[in-house]
Design brief:
Elements (H helix, E strand, L loop, with lengths): L10 E7 L3 E2 L5 E11 L28 E8 L8 H17 L5 E7 L3 E5 L6 E2 L2 H11 L10 H13 L5 E8 L8 H11 L4 E7 L5 H10 L4 E4 L5 H13 L3 E9 L5 E9 L3 E2 L5 E2 L4 E9 L2 E10 L8 E11 L8 E12 L3 H5 L3 H25 L2 H18 L2 H7 L3 E5 L4 E4 L5 H9 L10
Parallel strand pairs: 2-18, 4-5, 4-8, 8-9, 9-10
Antiparallel strand pairs: 1-3, 3-16, 5-6, 5-7, 11-15, 11-17, 12-13, 12-16, 14-15, 17-18, 19-20
Length: 454
């Protein structure tokens, strides 16, 4: 049995971008905090290689991450329609298993209206090596499609299996092709609330018969990624990429701690890159005037956060610290957490109109990206409900925002739903016929953002 290597703690930095100046009577302070971790195993949007190659000098490969992973594969009856869907799901899971580094704990779960351990069984995790990877792939051949769909049962089993490991990185990969029909929305929500903070999870929908809000809701609650794989043939590449990303994570349970002075209050905290994720409601109190917001697991990557604080009234010429932003890591013995990085958000009151009305470039950009995600989702909902005028207005605004910010990927997805007459003005016409794939892809990827162009 391979031993886990102690994970390295990446070096964190926090840079604050804001206009510090407020007009007389101004009370709202906005800042973008760019958090960067270096020394892990991933590089932003490009996954780390699955296996480290020995150096020419014969040096040992990079140590395996302290990780445990559970792969949950939908094997409900609909996965056999067409049969290639189940076959590709097996192949994708096998590819993900091949991507596991030696020493990583793992299990495979078959999901229907109930959850079943496919490998290794017995309520335990296997430890990845050549033998166990081969056994797991052999076990995959015995999966057959039947039954219904109750995703909460899959997640609860994954939680139980991951809880048996003391690995720092605990992660799930979930694949479904249909709606969660054998379980009520409240049941799934209760499960997600119970699992939040215990492990992270990437969720994928294959085909076009699943519910976007269910898949994205799982990923959001468990701080993972969500996406559509409309063509089952693309599953293997997608699963490999997800597993490579997990293998690059080096540290888990990092929180963003916000301290605010007496009289100030946090209006919201949102991750705004690489995706929009509102963290405001996930605050846990961390002492007087301080709260923690979860950020999940980190490798070698950078993310942006929008922090908005309402400060007390002050006179022109006064200056104050509006918030102190810290990246913190809990300690096993319950002592004060390790502070990984800090940044300061300031407020200075001025009667200089030019200074107080200037909008910081990063703040303006990400305010637009958050609006872009929101109006796409609103536009698609209006289209589904038959309000074509409302849908046209919202999706036209989305086209305008995507064009203005240089979000070319989202612009291309929008062009499959609307005919663009004038992108700069946001003038569009709804397409008469839109494929389910085009609409679901736009909705699933609506929260993906682009960073400020330097």
């Amino acid at each position: 049995m391979a031993n886990f290597s102690k994970p390295r703690v990446p070096r964190f930095s926090a840079e604050v971008y804001q206009n510090t100046h407020l007009p007389e009577g101004g009370r709202e302070v906005n800042a973008i905090v760019t958090v960067t971790a270096t020394g892990g195993g991933t590089t932003g949007e490009t996954p780390a290689p699955a296996f480290a190659s020995p150096s020419p000098s014969g040096a040992s490969p990079a140590p395996a991450p302290d990780a445990a992973v559970v792969i949950m594969v939908d094997s409900s009856g609909s996965m056999e329609y067409p049969p290639v869907k189940m076959r590709n799901a097996r192949d994708a899971t096998a590819a993900a298993i091949d991507t596991l580094r030696d020493g990583v704990a793992f299990a495979v779960v078959s999901g229907t209206h109930q959850a079943k351990e496919i490998y290794p069984g017995g309520g335990r995790l296997a430890v990845a090596d050549a033998t166990t990877r081969g056994q797991a792939k052999e076990a995959l051949r015995r999966i057959s499609a039947s039954g219904g769909t109750a995703i909460g049962t899959w997640l609860r089993l994954a939680d139980k299996l991951l809880a048996s490991s003391d690995a720092a990185i605990r992660h799930g990969i979930l694949l479904t092709d249909g709606r969660n029909e054998h379980e009520g929305p409240k049941e799934l929500l209760t499960t997600l609330e119970a699992c939040a903070g215990r492990f992270t999870c990437d969720a994928r929908g294959v085909g076009t018969d699943w519910e976007v809000k269910e898949v994205t809701g799982i990923a959001s609650a468990l701080l993972g990624t969500a996406d559509i794989v409309a063509d089952p043939a693309g599953l293997a590449a997608d699963f490999t990429g997800m597993m490579e990303s997990v293998m690059g994570k080096e540290i888990a349970d990092v929180s963003m701690r916000l301290w605010t002075p007496l009289g100030a209050e946090v209006r919201f905290v949102k991750q705004v890159a690489p995706t929009v994720e509102d963290l405001t409601g996930r605050r846990t109190e961390a002492g007087p005037r301080a709260g923690d917001y979860p950020t999940g697991s980190w490798g070698d990557e950078s993310r942006d956060y929008h922090v908005c604080v309402r400060v007390p009234h002050a006179e022109v010429g006064q200056e104050m610290l509006a918030a102190r932003v810290s990246l913190v890591l809990p300690t096993p013995d319950g002592s004060p957490p390790q502070v990984l990085a800090q940044g300061l958000v300031r407020a200075v009151w001025t009667d200089d109109l030019a200074a107080s009305t200037a909008i910081n470039e990063q703040v303006a950009h990400y305010t637009g990206q958050a609006e872009l995600a929101r109006v796409i989702q609103q536009g698609l909902e209006l289209r589904k409900s038959g309000d074509l005028d409302g849908a046209t207005a919202k999706l036209g605004r989305a086209v305008q925002l995507a064009s203005r910010s240089g979000n070319d990927d989202t612009a291309k997805l929008l062009a499959k739903v609307v005919d663009v007459v004038d992108a700069a003005a946001g003038t569009v016409r709804l397409k008469a016929k839109v494929s389910a794939e085009a609409q679901m892809t736009l909705e699933t990827r609506s929260t993906k953002t682009v960073r400020v162009k330097k």
